[in-house]
Amino acid sequence: MPLYHNDDQAMLAESAGQFMGEEGAIARQLRHWRDRDCKDGFGHDLWKQFGEMGFTGILVDEDNGGLGMGHVEAGIVLEEVGRNLTPSPFLTSSVLAATALKHGSDDMRGRYLPGLVAGDSVFAVAVDEGAKHNPSRIATRAEKSGNGFKLSGKKDFVIQGASADMLVVAARTSGSDGDENGITLFAVPKDATNMSHDAVRLVDSSMATHTTFDAVELDGDAVIGEVDNGRAILDAMLDAGRVGSAAEGVGVARGAMDLTVDYLKQRKQFGTLIGEFQALQHRAAHLYSEVEIARAAVIKAQQLLDGDSDKASLMASVAKAKVAKTAGLAVREGVQMHGGIGMTDEYDIGLYMKRDRALQEFLGDAYFHANRVAELSGY
Amino acid sequence: MSDLETFRSETRAWLEANCPAEMREPVRDDGDVYWGGRNATFKSDAQKAWFEACRDKGYTVPAWPKEYGGAGLSPAEAKVLREVMASINARPPLSSFGIWMLGPALLHFGTEGQKQRFLNEIARGEIRWCQGYSEPGSGSDLVSLQTYGEDKGDHWVVNGQKVWTSYADKADWIFCLVRTDKNDKYRGITFMLFDMATAGASTKPILLISGNSPFCETFFDDVKVPKSYGEDVPAQVGEINRGWDVAKYLLGHEREMISGADGGNTGTIGGALSRNSVDMDPLLRAELAMFDVDALAYAAMGEKFLDEIKVGKAHPAQPNMMKYAGTELNKRRHELIMSAGGSTALEWDSEETEGGKPSRNWLRTKANSIEGGTSEVMLNVISKRILELPGG
Ligand SMILES: Cc1cc2nc3c(=O)[nH]c(=O)nc-3n(C[C@H](O)[C@H](O)[C@H](O)COP(=O)(O)OP(=O)(O)OC[C@H]3O[C@@H](n4cnc5c(N)ncnc54)[C@H](O)[C@@H]3O)c2cc1C
Ligand SMILES: Cc1cc2nc3c(=O)[nH]c(=O)nc-3n(C[C@H](O)[C@H](O)[C@H](O)COP(=O)(O)OP(=O)(O)OC[C@H]3O[C@@H](n4cnc5c(N)ncnc54)[C@H](O)[C@@H]3O)c2cc1C
User: Fold this and answer.
1) pLDDT value at A6 more than 60
2) Is residue B159 located within the same domain as residue B64?
3) What's the domain count of chain B?
4) Do residue A150 and residue A261 come from a single domain?
5) Could you please report the per-residue DSSP string of B277-331?
6) Is the same domain home to B191 and B296?
7) CA A77 to chain CA mean position, Å
8) For A266-295, how does the pLDDT look when each residue is reduced to its tens digit (9 = 90+)?
9) Core-most of A30, A191, A291, B227, by most CB within 10 Å?
10) Do A286 and B300 touch (CB under 8 A)?
11) Looking at A228, A249, A275, which one is the last position of a domain?
């Protein structure tokens, strides 16, 4: 498969770009909701429009009302989301949770997917326990209890946890905290008793929760996949999310770079446009190179995921690490090259810096993923 | 089976039958590569057999038309051939500046007569070419070149000096930029082809920091270059005084080649290096891992670039980006190989290092970001032509 978008994908990119540039634009969404201190951190009307555009169900199969497309298409939407800093539950609901639900029973899929496709439901994912992503250690436990389970533990960095209609929770059903096996994924409905959220606003104005499960009672049919054998589904879900967040990160990098390059062409100092200074030109050109390379890594990872390749995990980590470094460079150079106004709230460049910081941390930062690349390469 | 799948299985079978085992080993030094030319010798029978099989099949230049010595493969078929060759680690049967640089320029700008003659010679490994661009006073600012060809009616008399002419001492012919009009900086340059055995052309090797000297100073002292080598075979490519267009086109191909976009410089190193250093420092391991991230991302970029070039989607200045990123990456690769190798890697002439390979390679890669245009010049081109930043 060539590493560029085919005609259908190019069309999707165009419509997603137009939609996000208008409906999802920074002034209209991110700033709007932030300035109102919105408890969800995003607008439900826009989420509904995501549904009308068909974006919500990109990774949902046609039997469940989705489009049955792949990670390349999901990434196209995410790149535009990133470029416009559009707040939405797309990454957690339509990529992460939708990937996990591929392994759910027909019953479960029938229960949850129509709401997602319609843009009515929001799903969250509860994996991390602690400030750093480390899915190889899962201490949250689900004990057998009658026909079901009792879930106990605490999860952190649950994006949109308090707004979610359902949480995909990774818990341990056997073994000890660091074991590979013994993991089970659960679909926990929002009204589960003894589940409590401590909601916090993050630097990028998004909302996350520390979520506590205090012997939450779950039916047997809350299990996604098989009991004790959830590791493979968890990994698949995480890799989908990593590649998705890498795609969003490329969008953030491009958005920041475009703003900055435009600024270099307008701002005059010392009687000339600052874009004429070679010290800035070379840094901008270096940044451009890194962004192009990061994009290539992302589309490669998307295609490998879609092709179920055994190289997909390696490339997912390459993409996530490369984008984390690249988008970080883009926002730092962006603020610096804007000079003093780059430090002001009025200019958007700082919003890119904040979003990038949150995205870098989500599902593993550059260090985590470089380490994983080393492990998957045998060292 | 699709035509392409048929081609793939036929190609695999042909390679199995024709590529000797010895030619499926990584290239270790210059001698492992056959460069062709009037004075060429083969290192082994296997090298000879592999070259001749490819030559007869058109696989020294698979994508060139059959009438010029190629195999006339479509871009998709050429990609399949590359993939199958890579899957058995087949060495390139023939390397030369004729294939990478002059050939593409002739295909684009040459007359039919020039193509018939020179492309066939290149494809068959008969004539080895060198590139005479740089001069002592003209490197990055190439259009300032001074080598002058005086018009004497049916011939030019060329005087001047070139520098950094790779393998000039081994080359049979040179493609050379010569000023033929002193009044017009860009439009006064002619792209000339002539025989290095012509009276007045001489070379002197330059010793590099790597201890090797494949580069030369090249002197032209009243070199008589005929204006034509026969019917429809002029000595210049493109029009007289319009050689700059040809030179620029060719530089694009040179940059692609040096960038390693074709698979040369794209490998990861962490896995291989960690097997040798038992007590790997955790910070070195971390740097290797970051390097492998960059290398795998760059490999994806190389693949994307070639895919986009094929369908005309790549920005025309994109090779400059590939060259910049690929060469900087390759320098980093060899810094890390030195670090992982420790004191062994410092050995300049031991058996253990096969004659100082790690340190010589490390030093050689420092030229990657200079030859074919420096990294700074690449960044200038990216900022002006792709980002469209103002000035100069
Ligand atoms: C938090 C904060 C507090 C401040 N407090 C004060 C204060 O109390 N009093 C006061 O008077 N000022 C204050 N300043 C202003 C500060 O001094 C300026 O922001 C600073 O001098 C940069 O100027 P600028 O913002 O106009 O950026 P610009 O000059 O527009 O620069 C934009 C970008 O172009 C680059 N650039 C500009 N010229 C060149 C060149 N020749 N070569 C290469 N690159 C170039 C810059 O480095 C920068 O990256 C403050 C600024 C901030 C952010
Ligand atoms: C190993 C090797 C093989 C080569 N093979 C050949 C060959 O076969 N044929 C051939 O013709 N040539 C060859 N070259 C020459 C090569 O193309 C030149 O060395 C190269 O173009 C740089 O020119 P220069 O050495 O004169 O450096 P200079 O142009 O003098 O540059 C010196 C420094 O100044 C920087 N600089 C120059 N201009 C600018 C600018 N505008 N902005 C910012 N920085 C700038 C450069 O980046 C560099 O860092 C080879 C060189 C090497 C090292």
Assistant:
1) yes
2) no
3) 3
4) no
5) -TT--HHHHHHHHHHHHHHHHHHHHHHHHHHHHHTT-S-TTHHHHHHHHHHHHHH
6) no
7) 12
8) 999 999 999 999 999 999 999 999 999 999
9) A30
10) no
11) A228
